[in-house]
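PT: before anyone asks, these are the final sequences, not the draft ones from last week. 679 residues across everything. Please model them as a single complex and drop the result in this thread when it's through.
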Amino acid sequence: MKSLTRRLLLLTTLWVALGLGLMGWFVVQTDQRQIETAADARLGSLLDAVVAAAAFDPSAGPILTRPLADPAFERPLSGHYWQITGPGGSQATSRSLWDSRLLPPLREPEGVRARDVEGPRSERLRLLERDVQLESRFGLVPITVQVAVVREGTDEEIASLRQNVILAFALLGTGLVAVVALLVLWGLRPLRRTQEELAEVREGRRQHMDVVAPAEIAPLVAEIEALIEQNRATVDRARNHVGNLAHALKTPIAVLRNALETGDLPGARAQSATLERLVQHHLRRARAGALAGSAGAECMPLALAEALATALRRLTAARGITIRVSGEADARIRADSQDVTEMLGNLMENACKYGQRQVAVRVTHSAPGRITIEVADDGPGLPEGEDGAALMRGVRLDEAKPGSGLGLAIVSDLAALYAGHLSLERSTRLGGLSARLDLPGRLASESYRGPD
Amino acid sequence: MRLLIVEDSPELHQQLRTGLTEAGFAVDGAMDGEEAFYLGETEPYDAVVLDLGLPRVDGLTVLRRWRAAERAMPVLILTARDSWTEKVEGLNAGADDYLAKPFAMAELVARLNALIRRSNGVAKTELVFGEVRLDTAARAVSRNGQAVRLTALEYGMLAYLALHAGRPISKTELTEHLYAQDFDRDSNTLEVIVARLRRKLGDQLIETVRGQGYRLIPASPAAAAPG
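LR: through. Structure below.
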């Protein structure tokens, strides 16, 4: 399972470890260099002191005219040494060196040279050396002055520095990760709370969600609440609907039972027809109600009308009715394609039923944002003042024609669900009925153009 | 006329079988899609009544497979699914008619008769052969205006010959279209039926074509001409 908390913590830990590690390394490097520079500076001043006190005696070679301030140079093998090398290998050394010697000087260019060497007791020494010219009676004499001090102190200082830095940064890193963990847990708490409330709603222990959500989660919570509301409304509607259906069915069933007991077959047949009509009506209503919320899809009315025309041509093959479909191929209707097929199918079937020879379907872009589908036939049309009745549920204009009589009412109801409208008038072109179905839509070319 | 009924509900299947047999059809039945496809592919049916929700293979698939195998018999879809989307799907898959449940048996029979007539290129419901008049919608036969009572097999043979008037029909073809698969054919041989028809409707009506079978002679050109 993907856990946000785990992912955030893992990333934070990696980042903190990498960042702090690099930073620690830099700090240690910088400080180590400073410590070594300071140590070298102290050693440099000792070197200066030795140089200042150095002199050259032609008989004895290099000598130190006065002892150094630090008594460590007098104590044997104390770790503090100096050594002066004159021409021809003549040497003077501190008493501390006893019978050992420092490494011979390097023959290198001017300046102070620093290096790490091994001392008489195999200790690590820091050695500074410098070539100088001493004035004497024989003119300038070149000598090399070396001063070496044990490194112990410096190394200890560096080790303790490294230890401190590692400790401090480890503490800092742990703290950072801990704070991030707390932040994540605290930040995600509304989500957890939401989930708990949702579970309570699902279990029926709670009617609404009361969680006070931060701005980032509030829309989600609002959507969930809306969904719960919609769900509840749907369930209520369904329950209502089932109740109505049961009531509506009970009367015909009672009549049917009586008719069967008394052997009244025509009566039984009529009741069964009523039952059938009721079931059909409620089924279609239920279907329409289920789909009404899911707007957003678009469909292509011309293609739907053509598919319907192909199907209806098969159905009416014996009667030789010509079905023509024309209009905007670009038209798009903002409605579920099954619902549009249902509306168009009912209108076109009606037209085929009542038409004599011709049925014409036209898809037009009637106004900005509106698509109109006109289904016209050359049948008898509507008697004056009857168009309202045709749209009323279950009323048939012509009882002789087969059909439930629900067709136009269903079309009208469905159209209303999509903010559309069905109107009936006399067709000026074919002379029969013209049913105009007006629905929200657009031309595809209005907002984008295809490659052709 | 021989029919295939494809319906998986046992009660409705039995009702259809009874109703359509009473209406004079020779009826075979299938309870699932696989059996239906096999029967429709191998037997020469005059029409098929097809339910859509079937076990194993659904009705639309069966229909598409028949059409892909160039089986052209008229198919009437009989289903509770009555939305236009489903009707369009069924008709454009190759069905010739669509009837939604619940339905009246009389309407189913009328539609099947119309489908069979249409598939044989006959538009009129009433066919006239000299003094004999055949009403395919009412399944009524009259001679010189006098109604003649025919058994289902007699009517079936007359109607089959009438729909193919002018063409000699072999005994094999007649057998295939008059009897259901499980029918005991011995007691009703074709010769016996033809003899009874000649006795009831006149000797001239049905001609024996040597080596080829039987033929109904189109008496008036209008009666036999399609359309």
